Amino acid sequence: MIExxxxxxxxxxxxxxxxxxxxxxLYALLFAFARVKNAPRLMPLAYTAYLGLAISAVMLAxxxxxxxxxxxxxxxxxxxxxYLLAPHGIWHLCVRTHEHEDEEAPETPKIFxx
Length: 114
Known about the structure:
- The protein has 114 residues and is mainly α.
- It is built from 3 helices and no strands.
- The N and C termini lie far apart (69 Å).
- The relative contact order is 0.12.
- The model has no long low-confidence stretch (mean pLDDT 88).
Protein backbone atom coordinates (compact mmCIF):
# COMPACT_ATOMS: atom_id res chain seq x y z
CA MET A 1 0.00 0.00 0.00
CA ILE A 2 1.22 3.52 -0.82
CA GLU A 3 1.89 5.81 2.12
CA UNK A 4 0.05 9.13 1.99
CA UNK A 5 1.97 12.29 1.18
CA UNK A 6 3.42 14.02 4.23
CA UNK A 7 2.12 17.48 4.94
CA UNK A 8 5.69 18.77 4.67
CA UNK A 9 5.85 17.40 1.09
CA UNK A 10 2.53 18.91 0.00
CA UNK A 11 4.09 21.97 -1.65
CA UNK A 12 6.66 19.80 -3.46
CA UNK A 13 3.87 17.50 -4.65
CA UNK A 14 1.72 20.40 -5.85
CA UNK A 15 4.59 22.24 -7.54
CA UNK A 16 6.07 19.16 -9.23
CA UNK A 17 2.63 18.04 -10.48
CA UNK A 18 2.09 21.48 -12.00
CA UNK A 19 5.56 21.38 -13.57
CA UNK A 20 4.82 17.95 -15.10
CA UNK A 21 1.82 19.46 -16.88
CA UNK A 22 3.61 22.66 -17.94
CA UNK A 23 6.83 20.97 -19.11
CA UNK A 24 4.90 18.19 -20.88
CA UNK A 25 2.82 20.71 -22.80
CA LEU A 26 5.85 22.83 -23.59
CA TYR A 27 7.73 19.76 -24.87
CA ALA A 28 4.86 18.80 -27.17
CA LEU A 29 4.39 22.38 -28.36
CA LEU A 30 8.07 23.03 -29.09
CA PHE A 31 8.47 19.62 -30.75
CA ALA A 32 5.49 20.20 -33.04
CA PHE A 33 6.47 23.79 -33.81
CA ALA A 34 10.03 22.73 -34.65
CA ARG A 35 8.74 20.12 -37.07
CA VAL A 36 5.94 22.15 -38.66
CA LYS A 37 8.07 25.27 -39.18
CA ASN A 38 11.17 23.20 -40.06
CA ALA A 39 13.12 24.94 -37.29
CA PRO A 40 15.57 22.37 -35.90
CA ARG A 41 17.06 25.01 -33.59
CA LEU A 42 13.94 24.59 -31.42
CA MET A 43 14.55 20.87 -30.82
CA PRO A 44 17.11 21.44 -28.03
CA LEU A 45 14.52 23.62 -26.30
CA ALA A 46 11.95 20.84 -26.69
CA TYR A 47 14.30 18.31 -25.16
CA THR A 48 15.14 20.75 -22.36
CA ALA A 49 11.41 20.94 -21.63
CA TYR A 50 11.34 17.12 -21.61
CA LEU A 51 14.23 17.11 -19.14
CA GLY A 52 12.17 19.43 -16.94
CA LEU A 53 9.26 16.99 -17.29
CA ALA A 54 11.46 14.06 -16.28
CA ILE A 55 12.91 15.86 -13.26
CA SER A 56 9.44 17.00 -12.17
CA ALA A 57 8.01 13.49 -12.57
CA VAL A 58 10.80 12.02 -10.46
CA MET A 59 10.28 14.71 -7.81
CA LEU A 60 6.54 14.02 -7.81
CA ALA A 61 7.02 10.27 -7.56
CA UNK A 62 9.50 10.73 -4.73
CA UNK A 63 7.26 13.15 -2.81
CA UNK A 64 4.22 10.88 -3.31
CA UNK A 65 6.20 7.84 -2.09
CA UNK A 66 5.76 6.04 -5.41
CA UNK A 67 9.35 4.81 -5.49
CA UNK A 68 8.62 2.60 -2.47
CA UNK A 69 6.79 0.21 -4.81
CA UNK A 70 8.35 -1.54 -7.80
CA UNK A 71 5.04 -1.38 -9.68
CA UNK A 72 4.77 2.41 -9.43
CA UNK A 73 8.44 2.87 -10.24
CA UNK A 74 7.88 0.94 -13.48
CA UNK A 75 4.75 2.98 -14.23
CA UNK A 76 6.64 6.28 -13.80
CA UNK A 77 9.54 5.10 -15.98
CA UNK A 78 7.20 3.78 -18.69
CA UNK A 79 5.33 7.07 -18.67
CA UNK A 80 8.55 9.01 -19.14
CA UNK A 81 9.75 6.70 -21.91
CA UNK A 82 6.38 6.81 -23.66
CA TYR A 83 6.15 10.58 -23.52
CA LEU A 84 9.64 10.86 -24.94
CA LEU A 85 8.69 8.76 -27.98
CA ALA A 86 5.02 9.71 -28.44
CA PRO A 87 5.58 13.02 -30.29
CA HIS A 88 7.95 11.27 -32.71
CA GLY A 89 5.37 8.58 -33.45
CA ILE A 90 2.52 11.06 -33.80
CA TRP A 91 4.60 13.22 -36.13
CA HIS A 92 5.45 10.29 -38.39
CA LEU A 93 1.82 9.14 -38.38
CA CYS A 94 0.64 12.61 -39.43
CA VAL A 95 3.27 12.88 -42.16
CA ARG A 96 2.44 9.44 -43.57
CA THR A 97 -1.28 10.14 -43.40
CA HIS A 98 -1.01 13.38 -45.37
CA GLU A 99 1.92 12.68 -47.71
CA HIS A 100 -0.25 12.05 -50.79
CA GLU A 101 -2.84 14.67 -49.99
CA ASP A 102 -1.77 17.14 -52.71
CA GLU A 103 -1.53 14.48 -55.40
CA GLU A 104 -4.99 13.05 -54.88
CA ALA A 105 -7.01 16.25 -54.58
CA PRO A 106 -10.50 15.46 -55.85
CA GLU A 107 -11.98 17.58 -58.59
CA THR A 108 -14.39 20.25 -57.48
CA PRO A 109 -17.92 19.49 -58.75
CA LYS A 110 -19.16 21.91 -61.41
CA ILE A 111 -21.91 23.06 -59.05
CA PHE A 112 -19.33 24.70 -56.79
CA UNK A 113 -17.12 26.19 -59.49
CA UNK A 114 -17.54 29.93 -60.12
